[in-house]
Amino acid sequence: MPAWGSIPGFHRVLKRDSFYYSRLLQCHSSPKSVARIHAQIIATGHGHNPFLASKLVSRYTDLGGRGIDDARRVFDRAPQRDILLWNVMIRSYANSGPQTEAIILYCHLRRTSVRPNCYTYPFVIKACAALGDENEGRAVHADAVRAGLDSDLFVSNALVAFYAKCCEIETARNLFDEIPVKDLVSWNSMIAGYSQNDCAYEAIALLHQMLREDVVTKPDRVTIAALLPACAALAAVQEGMWAHSYVIKTGMEMDARLGSGLVSMYANCGRLDTAQELFERVREPNLILYNSIIRAYGMHGHAKEAVVIFSKMLEMGIEPDGICFICALSACSHAGMVHEGFEIFEMMDSYGVEKGQVHYACMVDLLGRAGQLRRAVEFIGRMPVDPGGDVWGALLGACRIYNDIELAEEAAKKLFLLDPENAGRYAALAKMYEDVGRWEDAARVRKALRDRGVRKPLGCSMVEVDTEVHTFGVEDESHPMTAEIYVVLEQLQKLVVEDEIAAIG
DNA sequence: AACATGTACG
C-alpha cells in the first residue's frame, strides 16, 4: 500500500471501489493495517457494504486475541447483513469462541428474513459440538432438514462429528451410512468419533472398510491421528505399525500430532524404545507430545527419565497443564519417588495449574504405594477440597498392598457413597478379606456389589501375538495357557524379588 | 465463507 501510494497519479488510475479495499485487506494482516484500512473504508463511504464487512470480520478474527470483538463491532454496525456476513461472524465464534455466541447469532438470524444456507449449518453445528450442547444441535439438525440442506455433504459431515462428540455414536453411524458419496472428512469424522467413544475395534474396522470400499479416498494425517488412540487402546501393535509405516511411506512430516499418537501407541504396546526414537524425531515438540513421552516412561517404571524429560520440557519454556502433572506424578508414585513427587506437586501452584481430584489421588497413591499410609490419611485430611472417589480409591489400593484392612474398610465405606458403580474397588476389598480368611465379610462385599446391579468391567492387559489378541485380568484363569502363564509369572516375581534384595543389599 | 486429528490417576 505505501509503495502504491508513492507512484505519482496512482490513485487516479485505480478505482477505489469495494474490490480495491477487499484486495487491500487480502494482503495486509497486521492489526494496525487492518484498522487503518477499516478507517479508510468508513471514510470513503464504503462502510455500508456487507461484502466488505464480511472481509473485515474475517480479517479481525484472524488477528486472534481480542480481534473477535473488533469483528463483532463491524458486524453490529453493518446497516445491512447478507448471509455471507452472518456466516463469517458465526464462523468466527464457532472457531474462536465463545461458541455460545455462534448459537445466539444463529437464533437471531432465524428471526430475520435472511435464510441460512449450506455454509451456515456446519458452523453452527460445530459450535454445538464444541459446547457439547446436544439439544441445540438436534434443533439445528431439524432446521437443516426443514431447509432441505441435511443431505449436503458438509452438513452431513458436521452432524456426524457432532453426534459423535455427544456420545451418540450410533446416530452418528446411521447418518454416516446415509451419505451416498463419502469424502475424506466423512471417514475421518466417523473414525475419530469411534476412537473418542472408546470404540477402538469399530475405529479400526472402519479404516479397513475405507481402504476396501472407497478407492478414491486415501487416508491422510488426520485419519492416522484419529486411528492411533484406537490402536493404543487395543494394544494393536500390528495396526499401529501399519499406521506408522503409512506415515513413512506417504512421506508425511512427523509433526507433534502424529508423534504424540505414535508415542502413546508404542508405549501402550510395550515398545518404549520405539516410542523414545519417535519422540526424538519430532522437530517441533509441544506439550501433548511431552505428556505422551512422560507417561510412556512413567508407565514403564522409568521415573527418573520421566522427571528428567519433564524438567527439560519446562526449561524449553513449554507450559505444563493438568495432564502433564498427572503423568509426572504417577511416574514418581510407581517408582516410590515420594520426595520428587512432592516437589512436582508444589510446582503446580507456581505454574498456575489447578490441583484437581486426580492430582490429590496421585499424591495419596504416591504415599500409599510407598507404605506411608498414615501420611496418606493426613494428606487427605488436609485437602482443601472434599476428597472424591479417586482419592479414596487410591487409598484403598494402598491398603490392599499393605494389608491394612481397617483403613481399607474406611476407604471402601466412602467409596460406596461416592462411586457406587465402580466394581473394581469393591473387588479389591473382598480380595483382602479372602486373603485373611474372613470369608463371610468377603461374601458380604461381593453380594453388595452384585446388588448394586451395574458391573463395570474390570481392567485388563492385552498382548497381540501374531494376529491374535490375548487379554488378561486380575486372577484371570480363562486363558487356554493359564498354567504356563502363571509359571512364567511366578518366575518373574522371583526375579523381581531377587532384584529388590540385590538393590537393598 | 464449509465439516475431520493427539496427551490423563487407580
UniProtKB/TrEMBL annotation:
<dbReference type="Pfam" id="PF20431">
    <property type="entry name" value="E_motif"/>
</dbReference>
<dbReference type="InterPro" id="IPR046848">
    <property type="entry name" value="E_motif"/>
</dbReference>
<dbReference type="GO" id="GO:0003723">
    <property type="term" value="F:RNA binding"/>
</dbReference>
<protein>
    <submittedName>
        <fullName>Pentatricopeptide repeat-containing protein At3g46790, chloroplastic</fullName>
    </submittedName>
</protein>
<dbReference type="InterPro" id="IPR046960">
    <property type="entry name" value="PPR_At4g14850-like_plant"/>
</dbReference>
<feature type="repeat" description="PPR">
    <location>
        <begin position="183"/>
        <end position="217"/>
    </location>
</feature>
<feature type="repeat" description="PPR">
    <location>
        <begin position="321"/>
        <end position="355"/>
    </location>
</feature>
<feature type="repeat" description="PPR">
    <location>
        <begin position="286"/>
        <end position="320"/>
    </location>
</feature>
<dbReference type="InterPro" id="IPR002885">
    <property type="entry name" value="PPR_rpt"/>
</dbReference>
<feature type="repeat" description="PPR">
    <location>
        <begin position="82"/>
        <end position="116"/>
    </location>
</feature>
<dbReference type="Pfam" id="PF13041">
    <property type="entry name" value="PPR_2"/>
</dbReference>
<dbReference type="InterPro" id="IPR011990">
    <property type="entry name" value="TPR-like_helical_dom_sf"/>
</dbReference>
<dbReference type="GO" id="GO:0009451">
    <property type="term" value="P:RNA modification"/>
</dbReference>
<keyword id="KW-0677">Repeat</keyword>
<dbReference type="Pfam" id="PF01535">
    <property type="entry name" value="PPR"/>
</dbReference>
